[in-house]
Design brief:
With 178 residues, the protein is α+β, with helices and mostly antiparallel strands. 21% of the residues lie in helices and 28% in strands.
Length: 178
């Protein structure tokens, strides 16, 4: 590997420290703020040099997509594909709205994606309007689990039960005590 300038070493060290503390890489703006740089272009230039010299790997098109070369990353980028109650969440390129970093300990399998929650029927389970839910596609759901379920072409997030051979989807709305 090629020799680093003092500033490149500082940026590389910061990226490494940030990843170890947060389990995901810093954004360009995180690096800009940390070093007090006036523009993101200066940060991009340092990142570009670190990539060229073989110290960093960057995944194009994804936010927070830096990885220290030679270390296995504990982070994976997962697409945000839409809202949980806004129709069929197909994992197609045109439906991807954003990418978000997530620890590989949470996103253990390929094909996982985020959906943005619309509505307040799961506030009792601490799932609030505009939260992102991490979805692992699977053919079966265990009794009592919270799941994103497709009903026709609509998706909903609810607690899943089978009672008397029928599927029941229960919201979790807390009741107020009077």
């Amino acid at each position: 590997m090629k020799k680093l300038t003092a500033r490149q070493k500082q940026v590389l060290d910061y990226v490494s420290l940030f990843i170890s503390e947060h389990s995901y890489p810093p954004s360009i703006r995180d690096i800009q703020k940390h070093f007090g740089l006036k523009s993101t272009k200066g940060v991009k230039d340092h990142i570009d040099r670190l990539v060229e010299k073989g110290y960093l790997h960057r995944t194009d098109g994804a936010a927070r997509a830096l990885e220290i070369v030679g270390r296995s990353s504990s982070v994976r980028t997962v697409p945000v594909v839409g809202r949980v109650a806004a129709g069929l969440p197909l994992l197609a390129e045109e439906n991807i709205q954003d990418y978000r970093p997530v620890s590989k300990s949470l996103a253990r399998s390929e094909g996982m994606f985020y959906l943005k929650v619309q509505g307040d029927s799961m506030t009792g389970a601490a799932i609030l309007e505009d939260d992102l839910v991490l979805v692992r596609p699977q053919p079966f759901v265990e009794q009592g689990e919270i799941a994103v379920v497709l009903i026709g072409d609509e998706a909903t997030v609810k607690r899943f039960y089978i009672k008397n051979g029928r599927i029941e989807l229960h919201p979790e709305i807390p009741t107020t005590i009077r």
